[in-house]
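Anyone else keep sequences and structure tokens together like this?

Example one:
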Amino acid sequence: MEAQRFEQRLLENLERDRQNRPCMQTADWVKFVFQGMLGVGHNIRSLEDAEKRLREEIKAVQPDAGEALVEPLSPAWFRVNLRRAKAEGIPAEWIACMMVLSDGTPEWTRDDVFRVCRQIAEVDDNCDRQLLDRILDPDWLPGHSEAYHAVCRPAYRVLSSAWKLPLQALCSIAHGYHPGVLITLDGPCASGKTSLAAQLARILDADIVHTDDFVVPHAQKTPERLAVPGGNCDWERLVGEVLAPWKAGKRTEIRVYDCHSDCFRTTGSLFPGRTLILEGSYANLPAIRRLADTCLFLNVPFAERWRRLEARESPDALKGFRERWIPLENAYFQAYNLPDAVCTVLAENEE
């Protein structure tokens, strides 16, 4: 995103926050800009330290399901509300892990923060201009004002915007979570299922199985089979060889089907007691859903999905998606009324 648009969004979010929280003083909006541009890195010593501090803070706050979970700072960063996170049952270690994975070299500098804050100060008659000069001190970190602490009781952590969608999913997963659950992640092609599954797996230390590895072999692709919604997925083998034995506490071998060579190959094992994420189209077929503990459905507008397909696929492949794969997926969604009330729908948003 170009710098001008980034700063515009940052200032829009700040103005909305100042209207909602009239107690904000110079220190508070400087901290907002600082975090919105530089992010979280300055606040992390180690994963262990981040977890320890988070556990102590979450233990001290009262859960509040009425507060917003996410407070946008900028296109790159947001605050996650710890009171709401506690109400959702999101563990400290998950948030700490997202913090560490959010860390990195920021695109902006203290000079940029100072420049933006100077722009704000030009139209703020109550600005503490002496405080602005401290922004350029490399050892100085912003803090909230006493008035803000008294009224707003800030309790949050700053995360990269890359974790907004996974955070939505974790809210659903957290209820009744224990290692060893099965999470299904479904949705249309190019909605980002594989990427989201990888993010969730890092937080949950989970294994991943892809439905793309369980396509019906060529010999079984009869017109009758493909006429059944979801019939392109070899759900019988997926359930019989993998999911049902794994749910029964047995170690299972993963055999993937390679449609190009028309053969099977063993790629690894699944061990009971570890969380498992099944991602891909047809992950919420009825026979699979009966085994799932949490069902997720990733919903992304068609225009964005098609843009992604155009960026990664050849013209011949695009034709295949348009004429075959997308119609098959749509028939599956329609036949089983997906997403339904059992699914948690995850949706990307601009903020």
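And example two:
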Amino acid sequence: MNPESKDYHIRQIRLENMLPEVFVNEHVPHSDIWQTDRVFDRGRHYLVEAPSGGGKSSLMAYIYGNRTDYRGKLSFNGRDTRSLSMGIWQMLRRRHIAYLPQELDLFPELTCIENIRLKNDLTGHVPPARIDEWLERLGIDFRRDTPAGRMSIGQQQRLAIIRALCMPFDFILLDEPVSHLDAANNRIAADIIDEEAARQGAGVISTSVGNPLLLHSAISIKL
């Protein structure tokens, strides 16, 4: 099906013999992803764990289309992503692939709720009452009108998780999303992500260096 069709969904992401260019002349330890065949299916949850420098952020950027400095093949529903036009990539990022980078990419001068609305006003995807519920469950409703730059890193991560969910998606990519959260807030964040992914029949791919998102029934992958 054409990615521009309104009925299109990314059902499967496949990585075939992929390897970041920076690793080409290095010894690469055994990996469940690099230099092998790995499939991510829509509707399933995956936890990618690796030490720092193992390529977790690179993997997320490759799937999102921000970077192409790799060997091998990455495909959506069997179509090589290198063949996709910029226009199709932009459409995929609006409707099919949600992404929370490790750097969060918040606007520090905007308030917590303004950062969220900036995205949700574009997509119209999440009812305001649900956003209010998420803010309360994650314990940052009292920071609603606080500039993001004045929030703690843990609070910023919770804000960024909410913002990432404010769009339709077939897959959501989460790069170390709870690295600064305690176990209680990690569980709440994971529950919210689980619920929203289930609502959309979506897949979840989350990375970690030691504090993994506590997803239910996640498939563990060593990078």
